[in-house]
Amino acid sequence: MSYSLSRRWILVLLVLAISLRAVATDGGVVAGTSFHRYSTQDQLRRTITFYLSDSATDRSVPLAVFVQGSGCASLFHRQGERIMQGAFVLLLDATRGRARVLVVEKPGVQFLDEQADPADAKTCRPEFLAEHTLDRWTAVIVASIKAAHQLPGIDGSRTLVIGGSEGGVVAVHVTNVMPSVTHAASIAGGGPNHLFVLADYVRRQGLDPEAEVYGCWAKILRDPDGTTEFCWGQPYRLWSSLLKTSLTQECLESDAALYLVHGTADEWSSIGAFDVMRAELAARQRKAVFERIEGANHSLSRPNEKPADGLTAAFGRVMDWFVEPTR
Hints:
The protein is an alpha/beta fold. It contains eleven helices and 13 strands. Helix 4 crosses helix 5, helix 5 runs parallel beside helix 9 and helix 6 runs antiparallel to helix 7.
């Protein structure tokens, strides 16, 4: 049995250990929003927090689960006296009542935590640095989906997980841990192993990948669970988990319907990474929706457009694809 296959089944067995009667405790509505706060436990016996949008219809509708990218900031932040929401509110708008949006607070993050630079985790809580790995983050999302599926008004027969940047890899990974998730979408999630993305990025900055990337990777391998030493703004512990896989590998292992989006002007993960992934999936006859957005950056913004326009439009297309009766 290959490493990737055995790893997948180990993770599936871990998920099956979560009670099918997962209980979600309603903590009330988040002031000024249409989201209720819930808590539940995952298979690691951690108390976790997720937020579910109010129902806009009397009928049961599926979940659209949003997975945020890098960073230790809370899903919500304070602006004066108001509680503000993140990019997931754009997904909520795109649902038009056809799904309910689920968002999950990362383990180790507390409500309204802020972070000046998502690319620099050195100011994050020690609890977050210890908890934020691919598998431990995925377990939190899976437990939240299971708990939400037990709530009234949720159609558990179809579930979408959509993520951006680092969250794009996580979104597809969720489908390999929880096969009942039927659809996944990745926005600007890269493609090949992230070492390629990093090496390509530093080369475009005029730096030497051998020193800047592979030298740091050698240090990570010597202390893969380290949370006090950092490469590229993140602790060794996170990188050692993320770099065991890639978006390409997760897509090849997944049975879910896939929607993959990337901007041709992405300043962080070049469009070349997306093209490499598309070629690899095509060679393996792995079908997916592939969308290249001309002139769009890592956030899908384009010149002469409002910053959120590109992401809003992409969410709308993904939702239209998800609610179609055929795959």
